[in-house]
Amino acid sequence: MSYLEHSVKSVPSGFRKILHLNWALILLLIAVSSVGFLMLYSVAGGSFSPWAEAQMKRFLMGLVLMFGIAMVPIWFWRNVSGVLYLGSLVLLVLVEIMGSVQMGAQRWIDLGFMRLQPSELMKITLVMFLAAYYDWLPAKKTSRPFWIILPIVIILVPTFLVLRQPDLGTALLLLMGGAMVIFIAGVHWAYFAVVFAMGIGLVTAVFQSRGQSWQLLKDYQYRRIDTFLDPASDPLGAGYHITQSKIALGSGGWTGRGFMQGTQTRLNFLPEKHTDFIFTTLAEEFGFLGAVSLLALYALVIVFCVASALQNKDRFSALMTMGIAGTFFLFFAVNMSMVMGMAPVVGVPLPLVSYGGSAMLVLMVAFGMVQSAHVHRPR
Amino acid sequence: MKRTAAETAASNARMTRRGILLGGAQLGFMGLLGLRMRYLQVDQADEFRLLAEENRINIRLIAPARGEIFDRNGVIIAANEPSYRITIVREDAGNVEEVIARLSTLIELDDAALNRAMTEMKRSAPFLPVAVAERISWEEMSRVAVNAPALPGVTPEVGLSRLYPHGPDFAHVIGYVGPVSDYDLSKIDDPDQLLLIPRFQIGKVGLEAKREDKLRGKAGTKRVEVNAVGRVMRELDRREGQPGDDLQLTVDQKLQSYIQARLGEESAAAVVMDCNTGEILAINSAPSFDPNLFVRGISVADYSALTENDHRPLATKSVQGTYPPGSTFKMVVALSALEAGTIDSKTTHWCPGHLQVSNRRFHCWKRGGHGHMNLETALRESCDVYFYELALEVGIEKITNMANRLGLGVKHGIPMSAVAGGLTPTKEWKARNRDTPWVIGDTVNASIGQGFVLASPLQLAVMSARLASGKAVEPTLVKSINGIDQTVPAEDVPDLDVNPNHLRMVRQAMFAVSNHRKGTAYSQRIIMDEYRLAGKTGTSQVRNITAAERRAGVIRNEDLPWGRRDHGLFVNFAPYDNPRIAVAVIVEHGGGSSAATPIARDITLQALFNGDPPLEAYPSKDRGRIRSQQERLRQEYLARQSNDRGRA
């Protein structure tokens, strides 16, 4: 499989590529991000600073980045995916060594103009590298044990590094995102059954290790799990996040309290209202209808991505697009489950809505890849 | 790597299948998220909305104005004065030290209070106001208000604080208020939310404490929106409370203040009652203290000065102090003998100066004895032996019964602190409380108000009033609550159920005490006919006189240390022809009844004339002394008034 195999002629070139972008997807992304701007404006008490304005700038930057990436042929990205993966891995090791300490976790590298979280970058490069791997691997070998070990190592190395930071949320996303790519690539069912069984074993081990010398998670992570299982046990302490979040969410009702009228957010009952818990603000102010609308926008993003992937006859493009869609899905699914009390508080932002530079830029880069795959699909 | 078309097609088909499967699973999970949203936001919305309101809305109480207290003529005794204080909010002040330094150039700041404020400020949340100066003057407050721009975070506040314009005169009657303490709260099962307001004042002792229920009022509420750390964002609405009820006392402020001045620094108590209705016109205990000190927070030095004073200014001697009534008890014995029929007005007993009762010799106060005594002469000259004889004939049970009917040994329900029941002993009482059984000597001792008998000045005043009116009057202190009359009209007071002739005989004897040349209080009589008083002197021993001392000659009171001198008592009613008031006076360790009698006469006249009486009421030889005393008390009163005004 090489560059020449594609009927290059049918691929648009130059500025004509812009016409062949997946514009529906771009509009969806703008819509989702606008919801974010609106909410950031609201949680700042009706002010563009400190969050909404910065977020808009980043989004514009991300949009430019996305267009830039989309113009570059997808096969180039496929060819460099290994390098990108290794680069991300090096950065991950770097933060491990010299990363600044913030909130008890070493997560980012200060680039001067922004703080880069290599773990965010890894979410994309991992998916790309796995997609490239399965693109290279002959189909009949996909389910052979040896060829399974390799992608597992590819997934577990960064996952382990991220877990050490410690960032349970991102580690979970990496693991599940990678697993999704392997699944779509067509690995035999039996492997997943085995992994599922092992997962259960791991969960058991995590609980068993508590208080032992080989304790697998930090104490605060255990506490979060405890409070997830029973938030009412400590409503003012560790269970505060979940309890307050549910109160804010529930008090929204059908149509919400109205824009900028969310009392729980306004009065600071909600923790981290501009980052991980921004969905509760939305749900409180715009109610069930607002929350479901955002969910619908996200669903459309997934549907458009999957549709684009299914149309794409290029194996790498299809795998990568569906992997990115899966990662994007994991972002909001975990975040929403968390604020609705269906998952422990693990610190995953709401994609494109939560305030945060790295996540926003990395997601736009990812959608740049999706656009590139869409534009350069074999016709 | 080469791959066959078939392989590629198969693998692509599988990929498509799995892609659709995964995409479907994702959409399915989103559906789950949607259902969860629906459950939280629609199905459980009401519950969560309620929780959110509780989170957000804080109900704050508004302290009601405390009910005020007036005397029987409407003179204010316990007032609410606006109290200005200066508070600082640390967060708004920025540099607290600098702001306080600037503030101290405007008003005087108390170092101790300032230190307390600084520590409180460090401890409490930065947005909470902390008082740095309390009870500042209006001028000081306006100085601060004018300079507000230079004083960020500084707020002058107005609140209500208790003020007792007559200071010590009513200290024992109405007591004082103070901030709620943890101890106060521990005594109440379900404390009113109001009590939890910082610095909220409640009645601590006296009427302020006993009628707390009426005086406190009902809290108003305001609903405020607060954020997660409790800062008030805005007020949503407010409901005004209900101020406490105003109380009007039966006490006459002018008389009360006069008596307090007249008692001076003596350790003494006096009670004046309307003998037909039981209304208390004055009820004093001396020495007194300034209740305003307690409202403001009394200093350790001031407090220990009060507790270490051997004259016990904090004790309410008028109701709490119980004393052997001494000879003032003789009316009880006389009346019980008359009612039992063992004597009549002509019955005589021989007083040789002592009486031998089962191996023990009981002395009369007059060593040589009184000779033949009948009821009137015995009471007039306070012959002890006559009453020993009466008591031996009547027995202790009847005497106690009569004492109780006259109001002794009974706890009268007036709203003051620590009202004592006194003691009128019976044989059962002694069997229960002492190891030895009742002996005849106990009866003999009780007949002259010594031994186990104990009575408070209030009880003696009640006795005097009942003797005077023949009605079973009960003392009352509160005339009206919020304008609603609480007193019992004279015609509704039940009769004492004692033969009126017997009462008249006792009254006649009491008249002789003060108006017969040989009466024990003759020197302290009133000479205006329409104001003549009838009374009874009393001296109660606080020590035993041993046989050896009696042989060597009883030590004179003046030669004893203060704490071992006899108490002086006097009870009386006046005017004799048409009794209006009853008075009881006790001077602790006064050395004998002569300490109490002149005070009682002055009080009686003051009450009857509703102010300084004409000198013609006094025997001519006393007039010079009385004139200068009236002048001195008037000057003192004026001086104190202007002093109070300056302080307030």
UniProtKB/TrEMBL annotation, chain A:
Enzyme Commission number(s) of this protein: 2.4.99.28
Entry keywords, A to Z: Cell inner membrane, Cell membrane, Cell shape, Cell wall biogenesis/degradation, Glycosyltransferase, Membrane, Peptidoglycan synthesis, Transferase, Transmembrane, Transmembrane helix
Transmembrane segments annotated in the record for this chain: 20-47, 59-77, 83-101, 145-163, 175-207, 286-310, 322-346, 352-370
InterPro entries tied to this protein: Cell_cycle_FtsW-rel_CS, FtsW/RodA, RodA/MrdB
Bilayer disposition of the protein: Multi-pass membrane protein
Domain of life: Bacteria
Enzyme class of the recorded protein, top EC level: transferase
GO cellular component: cell division site; plasma membrane
Protein localization: Cell inner membrane; Membrane
Function of the molecule: Peptidoglycan polymerase that is essential for cell wall elongation.
Family: Belongs to the SEDS family. MrdB/RodA subfamily.
Protein name as annotated: Peptidoglycan glycosyltransferase MrdB
Protein's organism: Cognatishimia maritima
Biological classification of the source: Bacteria, Pseudomonadati, Pseudomonadota, Alphaproteobacteria, Rhodobacterales
Automatic annotation (TrEMBL), chain B:
Membrane topology according to the record: Single-pass membrane protein
Main location: membrane
Localization per Swiss-Prot or TrEMBL: Cell membrane; Membrane
GO molecular function: penicillin binding; peptidoglycan L,D-transpeptidase activity; serine-type D-Ala-D-Ala carboxypeptidase activity; transferase activity
GO CC terms in record: plasma membrane
Single GO biological process annotation from the record: peptidoglycan biosynthetic process
UniProt keyword annotations, A-Z: Carboxypeptidase, Cell inner membrane, Cell membrane, Cell shape, Cell wall biogenesis/degradation, Hydrolase, Membrane, Peptidoglycan synthesis, Protease, Transferase, Transmembrane, Transmembrane helix
Domain Penicillin-binding protein transpeptidase: 269-603
InterPro entries in the record: Beta-lactam/transpept, Beta-lactam/transpept-like, PBP_dimer, PBP_dimer_sf, PCN-bd_Tpept, Penicillin-binding_protein_2
Transmembrane regions: 20-39
Keyword Phosphoprotein: no
Ranges for domain Penicillin-binding protein dimerisation: 62-236
One Pfam family hit: Transpeptidase
Keyword Protease assigned: yes
Domain of life: Bacteria
Protein name per the record: Peptidoglycan glycosyltransferase
Native source species: Cognatishimia maritima
